[in-house]
Amino acid sequence: MADQQDSQQDEPPELVDLLRFTTTCLGLGIPAPKVAGDFRFGLEGLRQRGILPLEDVARIRAVTAREARAHPEGWAAGFAEGYRSAWAAAILRVLNARGVAFGKHLHRGLNLCLDTDKLTHFLDRAVTATHEADLIAGRPTSRRS
Predict the structure, then answer these.
(1) Which of 76, 122, 74, 68 is nearest to 100 (CA)?
(2) Nearest 5°: CA angle at 75, between 37 and 51?
(3) Which of these, 134, 143, 139, lies nearest to 106 by C-alpha position?
(4) CB count, 10 Å around CB of 144?
(5) Which tens digits make up the pLDDT trace of 59-106?
(6) What is the dihedral sign for C-alpha 142, 94, 123, 106?
């Protein structure tokens, strides 16, 4: 019991709250697929708020994924890489949809970026950027006619 309390003290309180919520929902008889969806949504919220790094989210997801049981570390690594790739693609898609021109060096840089916090900030900036430089600098330029 003391070991369990010590390990919970090492975890962010938000993660412990999410786990309590999840087990309570299961205990109340809410269908497991719905609870799993809420759990994944909660994990993503913790990741985006900087409470859990992507690698921890991937490990937690690997433990809960049936297909990952044979090789959880490999599955977690693949999940993390796919996640970063999807965020890079989303950034480029937003820029493209908004008509913001960008070069292949930005495409390459985003796809090689291992820092999910930076990718999150870049996606936030892509929504208002008017030039590629705005994405990197984080300060949209104002053009007045």
Answers:
(1) 122
(2) 55
(3) 134
(4) 3
(5) 888 887 776 777 888 888 898 999 999 999 999 999 999 999 988 889
(6) negative
- Rounded-to-integer distance, Cα 81 and Cα 99, Å: 27
Backbone angles phi, psi at 118, to 5 degrees: -65, -40
Query: Which of 6-10, 83-87, 112-116, 125-129 is predicted with the least confidence, judged by mean pLDDT?
Result: 6-10
Query: Secondary structure of the chain in the HEC alphabet?
Result: CHHHHHHHHHCCHHHHHHHHHHHHHHHCCCCHHHHHHHHHHHHHHHHHCCCCCHHHHHHHHHHHCHHHCCCHHHHHHHHHHHHHHHHHHHHHHHHHHCCCCCCHHHHHHHHHCCCHHHHHHHHHHHCCCCCHHHHHHCCCCCCCC
What pLDDT sits at residue 75?
86
CA-based diameter of the chain, in Å?
68
